[in-house]
Inverse folding.
């Protein structure tokens, strides 16, 4: 096959892969259609086609807006003030019991005041079903905006900055409420600048179960005494921390519940007092954002995790039914909005809790339902693809029309005072039916999966995978044309075996969680087999080869121990933890050692080309320079935040980092572009020109990348980077010495595996938690999502990218038996020889893993861990694909550039 | 951010593992190389496990081979690197040794699974794997020995 055919087919396969992947992602992680903007006065009018939004309300003073809302809503606010008491991770079961059974006696005894409120029918309790992922941030968003975020929301809002969607906190702010927030600082990040007073606590120190709550409670009596606020948010994290430490039945759970009970008691008594003194009605809402499993973890979709609590305590609330209903967590939003007379947030999918509106008059209850229906109807209309304005030809719209008709007839009867209880009841029923249906329908759009899209996506990816395999097979046939049967080599079989094992292991959630073990196990197995093979063979320079394999194995062992990784055994000791305990001087020492090691290795690799003239010396100097700058930066700025106050965020540091970025990028670019030109001066032989230029370019990539990583990675990881570099260089050295014993595709696969194992050695796991967000802002002064995203990618994919970039170096030292006749140079043939395997092997292996994991994700879509284990892993697989594509693109363009330039210069030479 | 932080929170559980170390040790014994997973020793809880493991290791692999081949590098190289088995005693010693290595390799597989069984603890399941492999190897070596002796009879 010709080179152009190869290139075209590969490009086609890549395109197919990208198309299939996009189709699948679109189908599997639907981005829910959301309305932009916020609800205003128009939300109190029936939805109409002509979207004539009167914008003049934005100019209104908060108090004018408040009175406008009150006039429009026709419902007098039932309460003046709201206290939102969030108890992180409290399962509703602890307070309300399960399946109609009351909670156990110990739990009841732990919360005597709350139980007495419930028994005295002064509180209204619900099981509020939380949607997965059951972790705090998305739950807070759901409770304040009423919309169920998709999984991608978590990813897209990675930097968890301000919450831009319409929400009740923003609505309260707009009508001039004064708000106070005490507790989890997530609130401050979501709603920056909205709180008059706040004291945020970090949820980072999980082991702390006392101080986090004390930091909230210490302000409590002051805040309850002050009465300038309208909304008081208290977010207690202690109970969640207790759960994480000891599970549901931890010995600390009882005292913690008692503490929470005391707080409820204190708040309740003070609200009664304030009611007596100045007739201000205060509503206390006790909510938990999510529940917890038996062992205290949460995040998934089991009953234990999604069973969260809502407790309404306030004057006028009386409990009617003895059993506690189950509602959705999003129902809190419209309920609170209607109770306090603000517009329902525009993307709300919840429906009001009717029990809370029973104290109101009949027409007010119906009005509240009407307002909720209008809002849901607007959202439904916006989501209907062919938005033919209000003509929703489905069940929900007809339900709405029924309810509206009944409401209309009730109204006219009410004027004549002939409305009976039955009319009211049927209207309420009709509204409830519509609200439930619409709410259901809206929640499902976030979870329904279009099967056609998924299957076509998978088929396209499968086709591209088959194409890659076919190309690889063809390439193998062309490179190794000998007809005789190949001798069986265990290492070659193992390369395929590893892929099969990895694919099989992906179906098990615990092996996905603990994937790092697999990669370390497999790479060490492979290199042990290689060691065995080296001992067996009698050819070549055996001692140096043995030495390099031994170096790879020993580095691999150290790398494995660097980060415990995974999910279940992260608490076990490992090297990085021991280093952190030892203190920063040791970490810094190791950092300096590794920077020096990288610089030395760089100069050593370059020294083999010293005879090629001053250009090489120049390149060496530029790397030495950037290496020393990194060293300077590390010594001066890193880890000094606490002592000098300058740290990595100071202006000097940012300038220094930018200087290093610039120097590294400039020297790599110059090296790659200039190397074929300089090498053509120095040598006559085309193949050696190409090889030397590729060697120089490869060195530039690898060491430029390593220096960048030494700058960006956490300080404990710098040794990992240098060890990875050692491993990769040793592999390349081994393969260059073994001649035809180790085939090129085996070598490339081995480097790829090293890269994957190294990915986990850097402390990465298959949860999104280990992504180094802090590192993404090194050298950036203003917030930029794109730039910090790129840096985050560079940090997270340091190791696979290093492996891919080293391919340029690996092809340059591989023995090739290309015999060129003097004037017959076939550029295409050359490019194919150099590039065939380095491009196809990573692409092929990655595409197998991608297709396999996509199929597994589809099969597991109803698995308990789909959101916590499989989906994050899929995100990693997708980004790995991106990484492979980018890496292969860089390798391919570099090699093509170098070869074509060298051939071009050679053709020019004789004529000049 | 909360989402990320909370994922960091750790579940409970007491398990050890030293997956690759185990393999390094095992096969290093085999290949004659100098790689030893010394880092795994720190993970040991209870020296008796280590002792028992080591004894078993020596019993399976080293003792028979060492008592037969002694310190002759040529023999060791032929048997373990080139896997050229000639005499029936070679089969009797090597096949179980290979079996033990392969068994240990497979025995390490259940370790990261979250079944929460006691035997998943390092190095119990690896030892079981090695013993199973050793037994299978013994049976297989018996077959080989029979075949070799038949060939010898024919040859004679």
């Amino acid at each position: 096959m010709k080179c152009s055919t190869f290139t075209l087919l590969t490009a086609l396969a890549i395109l197919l892969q990208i198309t299939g992947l996009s189709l699948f992602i679109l189908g599997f992680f639907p981005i829910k259609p959301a309305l932009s903007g916020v609800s205003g006065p128009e939300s109190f009018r029936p939805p109409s086609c002509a979207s004539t939004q009167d914008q003049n309300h934005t100019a209104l003073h908060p108090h004018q807006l408040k009175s406008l809302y009150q006039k429009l809503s026709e419902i007098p606010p039932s309460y003046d003030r709201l206290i939102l008491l969030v108890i992180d991770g409290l399962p509703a079961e602890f307070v309300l019991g399960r399946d109609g059974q009351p909670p156990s006696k110990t739990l009841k005894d732990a919360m005597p005041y709350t139980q007495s409120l419930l028994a005295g029918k002064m509180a209204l309790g619900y099981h509020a079903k939380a949607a997965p992922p059951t972790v705090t941030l998305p739950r807070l968003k759901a409770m304040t905006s009423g919309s169920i975020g998709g999984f991608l929301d978590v990813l897209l809002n990675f930097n968890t900055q301000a919450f831009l969607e319409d929400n009740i906190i923003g609505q309260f702010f707009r009508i001039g409420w004064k708000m106070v927030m005490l507790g989890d600082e997530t609130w401050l990040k979501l709603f920056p600048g909205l709180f008059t007073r706040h004291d945020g606590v970090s949820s980072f120190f999980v082991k702390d179960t006392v101080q986090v709550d004390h930091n909230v409670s210490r302000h409590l009596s002051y805040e309850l005494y002050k009465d300038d606020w309208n909304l008081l948010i208290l977010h207690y994290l202690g109970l969640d921390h207790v759960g994480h430490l000891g599970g549901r039945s931890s010995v600390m759970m009882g005292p913690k519940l008692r503490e929470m009970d005391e707080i409820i008691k204190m708040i309740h008594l003070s609200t009664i007092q304030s009611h007596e003194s100045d007739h201000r009605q205060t509503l206390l809402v006790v909510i938990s954002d999510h529940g917890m499993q038996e062992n205290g973890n949460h995040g998934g979709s089991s009953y234990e995790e999604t069973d969260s609590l809502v407790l309404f305590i306030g004057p006028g609330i009386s409990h009617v039914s003895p059993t506690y209903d189950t509602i959705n967590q999003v129902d809190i939003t419209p309920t609170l909005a209607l109770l306090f007379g603000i517009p329902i947030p525009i993307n709300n999918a919840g429906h009001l809790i009717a029990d809370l509106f029973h104290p109101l008059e009949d027409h007010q209850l119906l009005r509240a339902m009407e307002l909720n229906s209008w809002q849901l109807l607007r959202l439904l209309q916006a989501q209907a693809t062919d938005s033919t304005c209000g003509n929703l030809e489905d069940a929900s719209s007809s339900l709405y029309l029924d309810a509206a008709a009944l409401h209309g007839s009730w109204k006219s009867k009410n004027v004549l005072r002939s409305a009976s209880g039955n009319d009211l009841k049927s209207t309420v029923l009709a509204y409830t039916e519509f609200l439930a249906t619409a709410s259901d329908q809206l929640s499902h759009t976030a979870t329904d999966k279009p099967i056609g899209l998924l299957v076509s996506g998978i088929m396209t990816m499968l086709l591209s995978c088959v194409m890659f395999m076919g190309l690889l097979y063809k390439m193998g046939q062309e490179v190794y044309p000998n007809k005789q049967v190949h001798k069986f080599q265990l290492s070659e079989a193992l390369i395929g075996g590893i892929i099969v094992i990895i694919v099989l292991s992906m179906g098990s959630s615990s092996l996905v969680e603990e994937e790092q073990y697999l990669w370390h196990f497999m790479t060490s197995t492979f290199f042990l087999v290689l060691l065995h093979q080296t001992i067996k063979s009698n050819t070549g320079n055996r001692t140096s080869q043995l030495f390099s394999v031994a170096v790879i194995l020993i580095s691999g062992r150290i790398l494995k121990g660097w980060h415990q990784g995974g999910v279940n055994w992260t608490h076990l000791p490992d090297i990085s933890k021991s280093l952190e305990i030892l203190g920063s001087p040791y970490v810094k020492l190791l950092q300096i050692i590794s920077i020096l090691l990288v610089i030395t290795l760089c100069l050593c690799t370059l020294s083999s080309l010293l005879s090629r003239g001053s250009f090489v010396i120049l390149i060496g100097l530029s790397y030495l320079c950037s290496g020393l700058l990194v060293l300077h930066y590390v010594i001066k700025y890193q880890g000094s935040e606490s002592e000098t106050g300058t740290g990595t965020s100071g202006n000097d540091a940012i300038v220094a980092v930018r200087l290093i970025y610039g120097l590294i990028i400039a020297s790599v670019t110059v090296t790659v572009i200039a190397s074929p030109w300089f090498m053509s001066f120095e040598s006559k032989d085309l193949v050696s020109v190409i090889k030397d230029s590729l060697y120089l370019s490869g060195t530039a990539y690898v060491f430029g990348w390593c220096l960048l990583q030494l700058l960006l990675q956490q300080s404990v990881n710098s040794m990992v980077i240098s060890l990875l570099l050692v491993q990769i260089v040793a592999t390349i050295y081994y393969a260059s010495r073994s001649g035809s014993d180790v085939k090129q595709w085996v070598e490339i696969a081995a480097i790829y595996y090293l890269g994957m194992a190294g990915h986990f050695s850097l402390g990465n796991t298959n949860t999104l938690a280990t992504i180094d967000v802090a590192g993404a802002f090194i050298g950036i002064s203003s917030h930029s999502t794109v730039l910090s995203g790129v840096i985050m990618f560079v940090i997270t994919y340091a190791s696979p990218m290093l492996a891919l970039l080293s391919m340029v170096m690996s092809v340059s030292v591989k023995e090739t038996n290309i015999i060129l006749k003097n004037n017959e140079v076939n550029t295409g043939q050359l490019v194919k020889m150099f590039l065939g395997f380095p491009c196809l092997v990573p692409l092929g292996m990655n595409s197998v893993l991608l297709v396999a994991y996509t199929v597994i994700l589809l099969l597991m879509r109803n698995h308990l861990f789909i959101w916590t284990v499989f989906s994050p892993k899929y995100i990693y697989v997708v980004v790995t694909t991106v990484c492979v594509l980018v890496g292969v693109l860089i390798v391919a363009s570099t090699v093509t550039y170098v070869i074509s330039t060298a051939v071009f210069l050679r053709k020019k030479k004789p004529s000049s | 951010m909360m989402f990320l932080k909370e994922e960091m929170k750790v579940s409970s559980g007491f398990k050890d593992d030293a997956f690759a170390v185990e393999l390094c040790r095992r096969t290093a014994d085999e290949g004659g190389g100098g790689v030893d997973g010394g880092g795994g020793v720190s993970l040991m809880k209870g020296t008796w496990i280590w002792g028992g493991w080591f004894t078993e290791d020596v019993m399976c692999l080293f003792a028979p081979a060492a008592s037969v081949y002694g310190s002759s590098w040529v023999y060791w190289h032929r048997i373990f690197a080139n896997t050229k088995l000639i005499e029936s005693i070679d089969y009797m010693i090597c096949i179980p040794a290979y079996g033990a290595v392969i068994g240990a390799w497979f025995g390490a597989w259940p370790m990261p699974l979250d079944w929460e069984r006691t035997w998943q603890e390092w190095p119990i399941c690896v030892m079981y794997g090695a013993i199973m492999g050793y037994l299978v190897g013994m049976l297989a070596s018996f077959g080989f020995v029979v075949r070799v002796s038949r060939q010898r009879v024919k040859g004679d």
Notes: Strands of chain A lie at 81-87, 123-129, 179-184, 197-201, 231-236, 282-287, 307-313, 326-328. Chain A has two domains: 27-33+60-229+237-317+328-443, 487-911. The longest helix of chain A spans residues 866-911.
